[in-house]
Amino acid sequence: MTQKFITSIDKLEQLSSAKRTELKEVTDKFAFRSNDYYLSLIDWTDSDDPIRNLIIPNLHELDEWGDLDPSGEKEYTVMEGVEHKYASTVLLLVSNVCGGICRYCFRKRVFIKGHHEIVNDWPAVIDYIEQHPEVTNILVSGGDPLMLSTNRLADILNRLQAIDHVKIIRLGTKLPAFYPHRIIQDADLLGLIKNICESDKIIYVMSHFNHVREITDEAVQAVRALHRSGAVLTNQTPIIRGINDNPGDLADLFRELSFIGVPPYYVFQCRPAVGNKHYAVPIEEGYLIFEQAKAMVSGLAKRARFTMSHHSGKIEIVGLTRQYIFLKYLRAADENNDGRFMVFERDSRAFWLDDYDAEVESFSLDLFCNR
Length: 371
Hints:
The chain is α/β, with parallel strands linked by helices. Helix content is 27%, strand content 21%. The protein is globular.
């Protein structure tokens, strides 16, 4: 099934002419992209349809809020398209194209015309990774790496496979949801993944299902094809206003993901990127939604952790009391903070760590053991 990609709101005939004109101001600032398949999942009679909210621009994106680089990725960029924040993991931005552009995207800057942030010197990248034997994990992201041609992707993955100390290659992709036919209909892609997985490496596909209605028959076919190729799949999603910000919908997503062999991995706090205020849920409200959703499911559907990708590290939201919120570094840019436990006075208006006042108390591993 060949997909028609739509990059102009003017071509979206499901919207009235007046609505397209109204939204042009948004798409002049933030790129729009979708395809026939994904648009077909929308109930156009429902203005609150979650798939519609995920992909169709909204005037609220023009509200002043946030930053183009909310997680401070520039701070950890060692060369164009290469981020090295945690010792064992290197992030590669290999594409500035997605099957669709999520309206809450935290890397909107990648899609701004004239902006360039993807890898452009592969020999230098491979040399960098080879010179850092502590790197065992490579996260291949973008944009969406599966929007590259299979030949181009093969060139990248085969170079990474050849590095002895790289043991895991992660592909961050939303194509099982946005464009499953890319996977189902490409035997060469599936063969590439199979060949790598039959070596001493493993490929993890980090899928990005945000709502249970994205788990269509076609999406399940794509997931099963990836499984047969030897890939391991897990899922990541933010909690997003108007899409999955109630316990029932989030529980349905967790449950169906576990049924198709894609256990939930991370649920993210929506990052304070420019244009994202309309989609963000305050941290404490998000935590309650998350915990209520987990209470509705069992087993592997409970595996997700609610986390925040802060510039200082990946922080798990651990719990609440009437007065305090408890947080813990799962991974810190400064390794001295790994495992650090933090306590803050609660603030229902907080969307990010920086919104809380000074810590009430914190505990680090150094207090209890020698590193």
